[in-house]
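[agent] plan:
  1. take the single chain provided in the ticket
  2. run structure prediction with default settings
  3. attach structure tokens to the ticket
  4. add a short note for the reviewer (M.T.)
[agent] executing step 1
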Amino acid sequence: MHGVQRLAVDTESNSMHAYPEQVCFVQIRAEDDVFIIDTVRLRDLSALQSCFGDPSVEKILHGADYDVVCLARDFGLRFSGLYDTMLAAQFLGMERLGLASLCSHYFGVELDKSLTRHDWGLRPIDPPYLQYMCEDVLYLAQLRDILQEQVKDAGIEEELALEFQRVEKLEWSPKGFDPEGWRRIKGAKDLDEEARRVMVELFRLREELALERGVPPYRILRNEVMLSLARNRRARRGDLKGFKSLKRGFLNRYEKRLLAALRRARDAEPVSALGPRKTQKRPRAEVRREDALRRWRKEEAQRRGVVTMVVLPNHVLVDLVAEPPDTLDALKRFPYLGENRRERYGSEILEVLRAADSSSR
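[agent] step 2 finished; step 3 output follows
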């Protein structure tokens, strides 16, 4: 890849099939060549860092945020000189942002997206899957050129470039296991106290088994099965005969551990229907500032005929609300606001924030 000025990059992960997930393939197009790296077999990609981190070599991705954080998480790769065709289309106000839709619109090419849920960790890999992966990088450079011309015509080059810089710095944020996550399952809020105790233990057991087997939790026990177990008085007392929702294979393998979880539930402390105490509400002043900035942003976007993120991205709006600047010079504390927005909107932003604060007095 020496001397190449730009690369088209994509990845394939197995998030639907493995727990925790991992990047299974990296696809790279360099001029007329497409390289497919099997990252299940090859886990050291440090040789790519000099190229990926070189801002003079443009890396073109579609929906880059996920690829950026996954490549940093799995291989320590960092990007500089990124171009995201999905972000470009979003800034231009396009309604259909998928790569297949954009390739159909601009090139009349119908990309095969039937393998979106494929388990990319499986080996060996058959030729049709290789073709599928190649297509994800074949048209990115050409698409980038078309979109960038429209970006130039719209006069939003700096605004878009700032978003690319922000995406380059994104980090993987593992959520970890939330023991209160069962409360977010549809139907859980209607459980009685005994059923809630059962649900807590089932939720914990599912996580343990998912980590042991390396598969997503939903493939161990579906939400509706856990709810059904928790609601069924006979089942939660350990009588699983005739409980059709549980597959025979699961019972053959895990019946003892399931029964142990049900016993723990019977002896557990009561589980409140309300859950843990909620975090403190945001200060009213912040809420007023945010409402005022959002109203102003919407009106300005309509006036200009652009999407709201061109006027003010959400992440910048949130920062402005939390630490409101009091001078034009203070707006420089917000690097992703950019020079163009500071010059165009600086005074208006300060006025909106001051008016919001004065209305609370």
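[agent] step 4 note for reviewer: The beta strands are 6-13, 23-30, 33-38, 58-61, 82-84.
[agent] ticket updated
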